[in-house]
C-alpha cells in the first residue's frame, strides 16, 4: 500500500518493488539494459537495512568494478538517510576474496600477510619455473602459460583437474606439472595471483565446512550485479556461500542481462543464468520490462540490433519516454578517423554551447588505439577529457617505449629515454653494464648515448655487452643520419623494426600483444599530422601535459567493455567498420559466437545513451602509410529505419576532410546503383531518401562497389591489414 511505503520504495514499479521486497528465498532478476536492475539491488539493500533484517556487515554484495561498489554504497546511504556504517562485504569478487583470505590464510597454507602478484610478477615467476624445468622459454613463452593458467583458474580448475588435452598443449605435455610447480612456488613465496583470490576461498570452504558454516550464519543476504558476466569460479564461490541446507531460505538475489554478456573471452559463462533456477530451487524469476534510461529511438535501435542474435533468452523492453523532440540514433560517415574525431569534437562543442555538461558525454570505442585521435583532437580544442579504465594513449607502455626511441634519435642527450630502451627489447645489457655506463657518463659529464659510443672502444665492458652496445650505437647513428631526409613516419617505422621492438611484441604470445601492436601502428599513423619527428614529439609533450582531474567537467573516453552499467546523456560510438567492429579477431577466433558477443557489445554501447546516440564509421583507415578502404559495419544494416537515420550532411569532402586522391570520388550526378542485397535498414533508407545516393551518402556506383557489403566475395579487408 503506497501511502505507507517508505520513501525509497515509492518510485519503483510493481516488478521492481517485488524484486526489492522478496527478500526471503532466491531471486533472479533477468532484464534488459536500463530497467533498473542495479537500482533494484541498491534499494533491496536499503530495504534490508531499513527493516532491520540484517546489519550492514551481514550483507554480501558483489559488483563488477570497484567504482560500481563505491557508487552503490553512496546510493544506499542516500536511500536510508545518512551514511551507511560499514558494508565491509560490498565489493568486487576479488576484493571480497582478499578479505576472506586474509582472515583464513593459514587454511590454504599462506600467512595472512601474503602478497598479491600482478601480471608482470606472475610472468617472471612462470618464466623461472619454465627455465628450471630445463625448457626453452622462447619456445614456451611464460606469458602464454600465464594466460593458460588464468583460463584454468577462471574455470575453477586445480592442476589435477585440467583437461588432458590442455595439459598436453604446452611444453610437450608438461602443462599440468608446470601449473602444479607454479602453485607450489606461490605457496613458498607466501603469494597468490588474481585467480587464487577466488580459488583459495573455494578450496578453503570445501575443506573446512565449519568455516563455511560460520559464513553462512554471517551472510544473511547475498547479492550479485552483472550476473551474466560471472565466470565458473565466481559461480562456484557464490554457490558455496549462498546455498543453504534444505528448509533454510537461500536469500540470494542476482541481477543480469544475457544480452549484455561481453566477457565470454575471459571465461564468463552466460549459462550461469540458466543454472540458477536449478541450483537454487524455488527461485523467483522477475522480469523488468520498462526501461527508464533511454529514449524510444535509442531503445528501438538497440532492440532491433540485438534481435539478430540467435542465442538469447529473449526479453521485451519498452519505455514511456516518448517525446517528439527526441532525435533518432544518427549514423555519420567520415572520410577517415581524423575527420571522425574532428566532427565528434564539433558536435561536443555545440552541445557544450547549449549548456550540456561534458560529464554527460562519452565516447565508447571498440579498441583502445581508437582513443588516440580523440585525445589529440580534444587537446587541440582545449576540451577536457578523461580516459576511464586504462591509461591514456600516450601513457601506455608500448607508446612510451616507442617515443623513447624517437626522442633519443632527435635528442641524443635524453638519458631517460636511453635508459628506458637500451635493453628493451632484451639485448643482454644488464644492470651492471648500465651502471658502468652511468658512471662513465657522469665522470665525463656527457650523455649516456655518447658515453656508450666511447666506452665500446675501451675494455671496460665484457665482450658480449660491448658488442650489443656497439649495435645500439650504430643503430642510433644511422637513424640520426636519416632524420633530415627520410619521411619521418617511414623513419619511425624503420626504427621500431630495426631495433627489434616490433618483433618483440610480434613474438609475444600474450593476449594484450596484438593490442600493443595496433597501438604502435596507430602511433605511426598519427605522426603524419606533423611536419617532422621533432614537431611530433613536441605536440605529444603537450598532450601528456593535459590535466586529468577527477572533479573537472570532462568528456569520458573508454572502451565499450568498461562502459558496462554506466549511462550518459550523449554517447558517441565511433569506428563501426567491418574488422574493427565487429572485431576481426572475435570473428576469426569465435565464429558465430564471437560475432554474437560483438553484437552484444554494440547493444551495451547503444544502451548507455539516455538521450542522444551518435554512431560513426569512416571510409578509410590509414595503415602503415597506406590507405585502406573499409566497409561499414554489418551492424549498421541491422539498425531500424524507424529509429535510426543516416546523417546526410556528413562525409562531405569539399575542403573539409582530407582526400588523398585530390578530388571528390563521389560525383553527385551519378545515379544511385545498388548492386548488392541491402537488408533491413539500408534498403528502407534507400527508398526514403535521395535516390541518387545510397544510405551511406555514397553517390556513385564506384563508391558502392568499394565499400559495399554483400554476398559477393569474402570480406577481405580488415583494419589492421592482417
Ligand atoms: P544496465 O543493464 O545498463 O546495468 P540497469 O538495469 O542496471 O542497467 P539502472 O542503472 O539500475 O539499470 O537504471 C537505469 C536508470 O533508470 C538509472 O538512471 C535509474 O536511476 C533509473 N531508474 C530505474 N528505475 C527507476 C524508477 N522506478 N523510476 C525512475 N527512474 C528509475
Ligand atoms: Mg546495472
TrEMBL record:
Please indicate which superkingdom the organism of origin belongs to: Bacteria
By what name is this protein known? Answer: DNA 3'-5' helicase
Under which main EC class is this enzyme filed? Answer: isomerase
The EC code for this enzyme is: 5.6.2.4
**Native species:** Peteryoungia aggregata LMG 23059
Q: Please list the residues that bind ATP.
A: 31-38
Q: Name one Pfam family in it.
A: UvrD_C
| Alphabetical keyword list | ATP-binding, DNA-binding, Helicase, Hydrolase, Isomerase, Nucleotide-binding
Amino acid at each position: 500500500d503506497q501511502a505507507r511505503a517508505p520513501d525509497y520504495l515509492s518510485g519503483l514499479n510493481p516488478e521492481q518493488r517485488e524484486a526489492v521486497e522478496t527478500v526471503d528465498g532466491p531471486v533472479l532478476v533477468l532484464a534488459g539494459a536500463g530497467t533498473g536492475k542495479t537500482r533494484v539491488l541498491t534499494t533491496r539493500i536499503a530495504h534490508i537495512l531499513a527493516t532491520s533484517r540484517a546489519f550492514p556487515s551481514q550483507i554480501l554484495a558483489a559488483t563488477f568494478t570497484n567504482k560500481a561498489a563505491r557508487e552503490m554504497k553512496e546510493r544506499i546511504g542516500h536511500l536510508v538517510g545518512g551514511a551507511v556504517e560499514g558494508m565491509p562485504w560490498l565489493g568486487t569478487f576479488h576484493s571480497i576474496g582478499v578479505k576472506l583470505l586474509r582472515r583464513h590464510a593459514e587454511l590454504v597454507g599462506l600467512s595472512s600477510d601474503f602478497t598479491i602478484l600482478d601480471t608482470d610478477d606472475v610472468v617472471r615467476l612462470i618464466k623461472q619455473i619454465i627455465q628450471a624445468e630445463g625448457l626453452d622459454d622462447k619456445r614456451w613463452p611464460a606469458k602464454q602459460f600465464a594466460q593458460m593458467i588464468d583460463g584454468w583458474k577462471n574455470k575453477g580448475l586445480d592442476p589435477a583437474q585440467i583437461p588432458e588435452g590442455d595439459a598436453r598443449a604446452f611444453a610437450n605435455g608438461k602443462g599440468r606439472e608446470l601449473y602444479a610447480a607454479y602453485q607450489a612456488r606461490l605457496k613458498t613465496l607466501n603469494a597468490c595471483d588474481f585467480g587464487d583470490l577466488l580459488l583459495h576461498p573455494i578450496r578453503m570452504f570445501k575443506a573446512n565446512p565449519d568455516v563455511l558454516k560460520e559464513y553462512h550464519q554471517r551472510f544473511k543476504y547475498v547479492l550479485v550485479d552483472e550476473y551474466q558476466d560471472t565466470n565458473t569460479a565466481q559461480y562456484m564461490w557464490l554457490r558455496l556461500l549462498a546455498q543453504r541446507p534444505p528448509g533454510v531460505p537461500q536469500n540470494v538475489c542476482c541481477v543480469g542481462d544475457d544480452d549484455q554478456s561481453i566477457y565470454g573471452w575471459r571465461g564468463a559463462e552466460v549459462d550461469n543464468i540458466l543454472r540458477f533456477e536449478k541450483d537454487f530451487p524455488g527461485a523467483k524469476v522477475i522480469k523488468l520490462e520498462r526501461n527508464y534510461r533511454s529514449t524510444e529511438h535509442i531503445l528501438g535501435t538497440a532492440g532491433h540490433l540485438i534481435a539478430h542474435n540467435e542465442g538469447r533468452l529473449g526479453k521485451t523492453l519498452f519505455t514511456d519516454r516518448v517525446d517528439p523532440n527526441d532525435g533518432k540514433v544518427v549514423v555519420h560517415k567520415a572520410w577517415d578517423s581524423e575527420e571522425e574525431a574532428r566532427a565528434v569534437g564539433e558536435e561536443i562543442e555545440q552541445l557544450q554551447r547549449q549548456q550540456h555538461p561534458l560529464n554527460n558525454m562519452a565516447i565508447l570505442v571498440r579498441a583502445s588505439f581508437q582513443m588516440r585521435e580523440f585525445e589529440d583532437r580534444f587537446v587541440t580544442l582545449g576540451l577536457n577529457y578523461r580516459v576511464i579504465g586504462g591509461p591514456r594513449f600516450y601513457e601506455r607502455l608500448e607508446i612510451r617505449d616507442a617515443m623513447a626511441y624517437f626522442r633519443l634519435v632527435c635528442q641524443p642527450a635524453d638519458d631517460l629515454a636511453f635508459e628506458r630502451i637500451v635493453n628493451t627489447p632484451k639485448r643482454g645489457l644488464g644492470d651492471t653494464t648500465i651502471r658502468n655506463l652511468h658512471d662513465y657518463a657522469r665522470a665525463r659529464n656527457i650523455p649516456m648515448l655518447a658515453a656508450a659510443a666511447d666506452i665500446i672502444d675501451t675494455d671496460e665492458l665484457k665482450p658480449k655487452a660491448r658488442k650489443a652496445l656497439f649495435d645500439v650505437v650504430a643503430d642510433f647513428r644511422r637513424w640520426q643520419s636519416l632524420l633530415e631526409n627520410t619521411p619521418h613516419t617511414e623513419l619511425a617505422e624503420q626504427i621500431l623494426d630495426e631495433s627489434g621492438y616490433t618483433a618483440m611484441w610480434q613474438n609475444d604470445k600474450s593476449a594484450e600483444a596484438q593490442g600493443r601492436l595496433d597501438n604502435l601502428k596507430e602511433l605511426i599513423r598519427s605522426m603524419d599530422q606533423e611536419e617532422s619527428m621533432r614537431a611530433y614529439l613536441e605536440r605529444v609533450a603537450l598532450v601528456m601535459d593535459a590535466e586529468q582531474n577527477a572533479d573537472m567537467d570532462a568528456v569520458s573516453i573508454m572502451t565499450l567493455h568498461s562502459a558496462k552499467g554506466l549511462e550518459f546523456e550523449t554517447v558517441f560510438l565511433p569506428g563501426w567498420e567491418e574488422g574493427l567492429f565487429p572485431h576481426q579477431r572475435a570473428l576469426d577466433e569465435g565464429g558465430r559466437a564471437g560475432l554474437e558477443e560483438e553484437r552484444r557489445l554494440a547493444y551495451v554501447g547503444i544502451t548507455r545513451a539516455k538521450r542522444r546516440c551518435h554512431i560513426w564509421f569512416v571510409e578509410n583507415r590509414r595503415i602503415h602509410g597506406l590507405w585502406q578502404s573499409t566497409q561499414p559495419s554489418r551492424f549498421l544494416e541491422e539498425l531500424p529505419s524507424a529509429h535510426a537515420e543516416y546523417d546526410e550532411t556528413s562525409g562531405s569532402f569539399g575542403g573539409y576532410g582530407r582526400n588523398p586522391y585530390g578530388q571528390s570520388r563521389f560525383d553527385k550526378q551519378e545515379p544511385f546503383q545498388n548492386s548488392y542485397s541491402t537488408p533491413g535498414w539500408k534498403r528502407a533508407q534507400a527508398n526514403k531518401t535521395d535516390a541518387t545516393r545510397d544510405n551511406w551518402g555514397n553517390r556513385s556506383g564506384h563508391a558502392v562497389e568499394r565499400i559495399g557489403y554483400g554476398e559477393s566475395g569474402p570480406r577481405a579487408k580488415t583494419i589492421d591489414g592482417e
